[in-house]
Amino acid sequence: MRLLLFALGTTTALRASWSPITSKIQPSPRSGAAATATTDGSVYLFGGYEEDEAGARTVVDDLWRYDADGWTRVATGGPGPRLCSALAAVGGELFLFGGWDPETEGTGGSILDDVWAYDIAAGRWESCAPVPGGPASRHVCCALAGGDVLVHTHRSETSVLLFDAATREWREQATSGPAPSSRGLHVAAAVDAGVVVFGGADKSGAMCADAFVLGVATWTWRALGATGPAGRAGAAAAPLDATSPRNALVLCPSGGGFLVHGGWRPFVETYGDTLALDVSSS
After folding, report:
1. How does 69-78 read in b/e, with b if 16+ C-beta sit within 10 Å?
2. Is Signal among this UniProt entry's keywords (predicted)?
C-alpha cells in the first residue's frame, strides 16, 4: 500500500473505499495467481492455487480477463499449472515468466524457468526462450517503455534481466548502487524514470521493509529512506475498510482505480471475491 501512496503523491491527503464487483461468472477462489493490466483497461489473471468448498487445493492454468462486461475465461492450457509466477503486458501480448508447480504433495514440486507469450487477438500461447540463469519463482516483472520487460529475481543483486517483447531475446543488464538484497515475494511497480521495489522475504526468511528505485537511464539503484510499513512478503494491497485480511491476492489498475481478486487468509479461507479500490484526493 505504501507503493500506491508513493505513486499517487505523498503531499495529498487520500480517501479510499472498497466496493464489491459482481459478474455472471468469475475466477474460482484462489491465491498465488499472477495478474497484469493492459492499456485498454482490461485486467488479466492467470493460474494460482484454487480451493474448493471442502478445502482441497489444486494448481490451475486458466487465463481470465476482467473488463467492463465483467469476468470472462479466455483460455485454458498452454503454460501448465503454476503459482508465484510473474505476468506483464506489452502491446497486444501477455508474457508469463516462471513460477512454481507444487506437483504431488510432499515432493516440493518444480520451480520453473519457462516463458510464454499470449497473443490476445489470436487467443494463442507461444513458448519463448527460458529465463536465463535457471528457474525463478516468487519474482516480479514490469513492462518498461520501449517494449522491454524487466524481471527481478533472487539473483538480481548486481544485474537485472531484460526481455525484449518484439524479438523474444534476453539480455542481462548490469546495475550499480545499493541494490535490494537477494529476496522473493517482493513487489515492484514501474514509474516514469524506472522501477520501484519494496519488501519481500530474504534468504534467511526475514521480512524486508526497505524500498529501492532503479533508474533505467543509468541502471543505478537508490535506496528510498522514507519510513514505511513493517517488513512483509507477498504484499499487494492493505485492507482499508471492510475487506477481509488476506495475502497472495492480485492488485491491478482498472478504470481509474484498482482491481483486487482472491487471496488467502492462512488456514481460514481462500477468497474468490472481486473488489474495486477507489482512491481520490480528500
Report:
1. eebeeebeeb
2. yes
**DSSP code of 247?**
B
For residues 155 and 132, is the Cβ–Cβ distance under 8 A?
Answer: no
pLDDT tens across 71-103, in order?
999 988 889 999 999 999 999 999 999 999 998
DSSP state of 78: S
User: Each residue of 55-66: pLDDT tens digit?
Assistant: 888 999 999 999
Closest by CA to 78, choosing from 117, 38, 37, is 117
Give the cell for residue 50: 484454487
Q: Measuring CA to CA, how many Å separate 60 from each of 73, 81, 237, 256, 261?
A: 13, 5, 23, 29, 15
β-pair type (169-174, 57-67): unpaired
pTM of the predicted structure, to 2 decimals: 0.84
Non-local CB neighbours of 250 within 8 Å, separated by 6+ positions: 33, 34, 35, 45, 236, 260, 261, 262, 263
Confidence bin at 119 (pLDDT 50/70/90): very high
Q: What are phi and psi of 7, to 5 degrees?
A: -70, -35
Q: Which residue in 119, 118, 100 sits closest to 110, CA to CA?
A: 100
Q: Are 236 and 4 in contact (CB under 8 A)?
A: no
